[in-house]
Write a structure and sequence with these properties.
The chain is α/β, with parallel strands linked by helices. It is 42% helix and 17% strand. The protein is built from 13 helices and 13 strands. The strands form three sheets. Strands 2-10-9-8-5-3-4 form a seven-stranded mixed β-sheet, sandwiched between helices. The protein is globular, with a radius of gyration of 21 Å. The mean pLDDT is 97.
Length: 387
């Protein structure tokens, strides 16, 4: 039977046809004028997306590479770092810093909840000697389907001099983030989420405070050296060979984002999440995150009792062509995750919920067919978001 493929995972996300076509262009000289013009245009569009006047540096890497780039450019061995964690990727940020001999303290919150701004404020007030040099926070935790309130957390820092470093790998381009306005010192992201291109590009933006920290940084770095990248960027260049075809795709993806408008994109993601959550609740499924902190890019769902998440994933994938993600670490086997990030429309949510109803029925779960789809439809009609 013919199956149309639906990649309903939190990344890598579906790549739009226009982006795929752009990536098929013949490779150009990455040291030529044509490339310099294109790369300068891309950088200007990235600055608008980051909501910053500061340079946005581009590295060939996965999102984790941008995490490492932030660590080695902003810190020195022995620096004390506060890693605010609500899941797998919050943990990872701290683990990377520890690998480079930073002294990492974890401010941890239960998985499925968001970081409490008052707890961060309390910890920083206790740091009377200002030993904490940086605060590492994941904006959107895809392992749990929870979004941190970065504006509130930034305000909670108050006058503490620690750098605020935000992992926006799965949020930038889908969830509101205002780097300069909110006083964020460094923001990182990757290409394979809301930017709608394949994995392989990582980005780092740093403000003046972060650049001052760079000058004092004693971490070893060569490929990740932000200073080298900044010097090359002034000429519309990269210090080392860039993935030209991915940059063709990025230029087109950023054009698509500006055509839709970032405010409209944020609203679309909010609607996708609201509609999906309404459908899942109507089927009697329990969700990991409460609405108030739920991600608009991925939804984590507890499996019904008596069946396995791998069986849900298998039927959805093999019969309907819909790929869902499983749980990670302590949530493995307990949840499945539905991504609705990037190039996703409300019709994709309708298809996913309809197929899930059949899947659950075939696995012996008592589901009234059409109940979830109807809830999705009403959510679309009402078009009201909690944000």
């Amino acid at each position: 039977m013919l199956k149309k493929e639906y990649l309903m995972v939190p990344g890598p996300t579906t790549v739009p046809e226009r982006v795929l076509q752009a990536m098929q262009r013949p490779v150009i000289n990455h040291r030529g004028k044509q490339y310099e013009t294109m790369f300068s245009t891309i950088t200007a569009k990235l600055q608008r997306l980051f909501n910053t006047r500061h340079e946005v540096l581009t590295f060939p890497a996965a999102g984790t590479g941008s995490m490492e780039a932030a660590v080695v450019n902003l810190l020195s061995p022995g620096d004390k770092v506060l890693a605010v964690s609500i899941g797998v990727f919050g943990d990872r940020f701290g683990q990377i810093a520890a690998k480079f001999d930073a002294v990492v303290e974890k401010l941890e919150f239960p998985w499925g909840t968001a970081a409490a701004a008052e707890k961060l404020q309390e910890r920083l007030k206790a740091d009377q000697r200002h030993e904490i040099k940086a605060i590492l926070i994941t904006h959107n935790e895809t392992s749990t389907g929870v979004t941190n309130d970065i504006k509130a957390l930034a305000e909670a820092r108050g006058n503490h001099p620690a750098l605020l470093v935000i992992d926006a790998v799965s949020s930038l381009g889908a969830i509101e983030l205002r780097m300069d306005e909110w006083g964020i010192d460094a923001v990182i992201t990757g290409s394979q989420k809301a930017l709608m291109i394949p994995p392989g590009l990582a980005f780092l933006a740093m403000n003046d405070r972060a650049w001052a920290a760079y000058e004092a940084s004693a971490m070893p770095k060569f490929y990740w050296d932000a200073g080298d990248a900044k010097k090359a960027l002034a000429k519309g260049q990269n210090p080392y060979t860039p993935p030209v075809s991915l940059l063709f795709g990025l230029e087109e993806a950023l054009t698509l984002i500006e055509e839709e408008g970032i405010d409209n994109i944020i609203k679309r993601h909010c609607l996708l999440a609201k509609a999906l959550r309404a459908g899942l609740k109507a089927l009697g499924l329990e969700l990991l995150a409460e609405d108030a902190v739920a991600s608009t890019g991925v939804t984590a769902v507890y499996k019904p009792a008596g069946i396995e998440t791998k069986d849900i994933q298998k039927i959805m994938r093999e019969r309907f062509g819909i790929t869902l993600a499983g749980g990670q670490k302590q949530l493995e086997g307990r949840i499945f995750r539905i991504g609705h990030l990037g190039y996703v429309a409300v019709t994709d949510i309708l298809v996913t919920v309809a197929a899930l109803e059949i899947t659950l029925t075939e696995l012996g779960i008592d589901v009234a067919l059409g109940t979830g789809v109807s809830a999705v439809q009403w959510a679309i009609i009402k078009e009201q978001c909690w944000q």
